[in-house]
Amino acid sequence: MSQSTSFGIMTAPQQVEYGDVLRVWREADEIPEIEHAWLFDHLMPIGGAPDGPIFEGWTLLSALAAQTRRLRLGLLVTSNRFRPPAMLAKIAATVDIVSGGRLDFGIGAGSRPSVPMARGEYDAHGLPYLDATQAVESLGEACTVIRRLWTEAEPFDFHGAHVDLVGAFCNPKPVQGSRLPILIGGRATSTLRVVAEHADLWNHPGEDLDDAVSGSALLDRYCGEIGRDPASITRSIHLPVSYEDPAITRDAIAKATGAGFRHVILGLPAPYPVGVAQWVADELISTSV
Q1: Where does residue 271 fall: left (phi above 0), alpha (psi -120 to 50 degrees), or beta otherwise?
Q2: What is the pLDDT of residues 63-76, one digit of tens each?
Q3: 275: in domain
Q4: For the chain, which end, N or C, has fewer CB atoms within 10 Å of the first or last residue's CB respectively?
Q5: Mean pLDDT of all residues in the chain?
Q6: Which pTM value belongs to this model?
């Protein structure tokens, strides 16, 4: 794992207008210290007014990809429960092409049952809500077929416990092909086994650094069990930003990077102040490297 730290921003596309998000991403695209930018993947707000505005993640990501030139970009993280994996592979390939090869493919098992507002979006959209065991098993199969669709030159069949494909094929392929990074988000023990097998990056939601450190150690062990170098998986963490007291965020960054998390995603609360991307670079990143 590289010892250098990369910094990005996350703009949750809820309780905001499209122009607000576009403004921040365009500004960040001109600031070299900010290397990546992220949205999340929810269909109904999980914070603020439950009937407030929220944008579909992949559609918005494609629009932002077309209006930026440098930032790597992705969803933190796609819910594997929302879209069939072969369709998701096609969506991701399209966004990678639109972006000129800048996609980081973030995926996870889906919302935790402990988040009632997130749980409700499945019922509201007629989507099945798999139990935790099924969701993680399905995630592993999804990662397998998505990578195959991005790379295999001929149609193939796949018959798993949760994914069943006949004549599956993806054309055009992503610009990055087999190099398109997969970031898996999640903290459950079962999810970490999927991370060990499939991920290039692992993201922890960041609420509890002790939990993140324990998860990273467990991931090391799971990698060892399958003969994979643990250092081949970059450790990523999401940290909330405090505009009022940036010292709090700087302290969180220092602790996370000191614990080996070298891919830092700074969550920006809305509304976004004018010049917020430059503020992040000046007040948070430049003082942390």
Answers
A1: beta
A2: 999 999 999 999 99
A3: yes
A4: C
A5: 95
A6: 0.96
For residue 54, give its domain range: 6-285
Length of the chain: 289
Tally of domains within the chain: 1
Cβ atoms within 10 Å of 193's Cβ, excluding its own: 18
- Asked whether residue 1 is domain-assigned, the answer is no
In percent, the amount of the chain with pLDDT more than 90 equals 89
For the stretch 13-61, pLDDT in tens is 999 999 999 999 999 999 999 999 999 999 999 899 999 999 999 999 9
Could you tell me the CATH number of the domain that includes residue 238? Answer: 3.20.20.30
